Prior knowledge:
Blueprint lengths: L1 H10 L11 H12 L3 H6 L2 H4 L20 H12 L7 H11 L21 H12 L2 E7 L2 E8 L2 E3 L17 E3 L1 H4 L3 H65 L1
Antiparallel strand pairs: 1-2, 1-4, 2-3
Amino acid sequence: MRDFVAMLxxxxxxxxxxxxxxxxxxxxxxxxLDGKTWPEAIATNWRxxxxxxxxxxxxxxxxxxxxxxxxxxxxxxANDGEKACTASLAQLRTALxxxxxxxxxxxxxxxxxxxxxxxxxxxxxxxxxxxxxxEICRCVVAGTPHYFxxxxxxxxxxxxxxxxxxxxxxxxxxxxxxxxxxxxxxTRQRYELLKERVEQxxxxxxxxxxxxxxxxxxxxxxxxxxxxxxxxxxxxxxxxLARHRPxxxx
Length: 250
């Protein structure tokens, strides 16, 4: 099965391949491509738990033993957990949404401005991890692989809107390392483009913020100046009235 997966990875990269197989090959795919151990694959076998579905989706991104060991993923997760989020999640969501284009979307989906988060999950999860650390996880939604972030034990899914409302089962997910996701050249290119666009958005946003701050400071300085001038006028008038008050009284 490893040779078979290697052939798919070499000759059918970026394509959809239908596989008809029995129990053992499917369990092997769970181990090789989904990062499960054999005991985990057997325990979650749909034949045992009664969770049949019309089909299963596997990514032929990497063969187990190259970038898919549990120890490497655990180590990466621990290192990522040491990062501090450098921006609020709300700001990051805004930056991502402003940066999505057809060029950053997966070529396997028909991207459109009316559904801008479509096909953006993997690269968005990578960029979000750049800023906030945490883990990148993969689940399957309506037969489609979907990536999201888990930060401080909380699910952060910046592209959930692409599915139009169906509830996503985040509990049936597996962790993915950056190396595994970025193994495809197309994914890496799209990630680099999205990362650059987000950085440009931050720069432009910070520029406008600085301009706004400068304008506010200028207005505040004028108000302060006017306030001091007004106070000076009041003091002059008060002093003048005080000097002439005896004359008016007499």
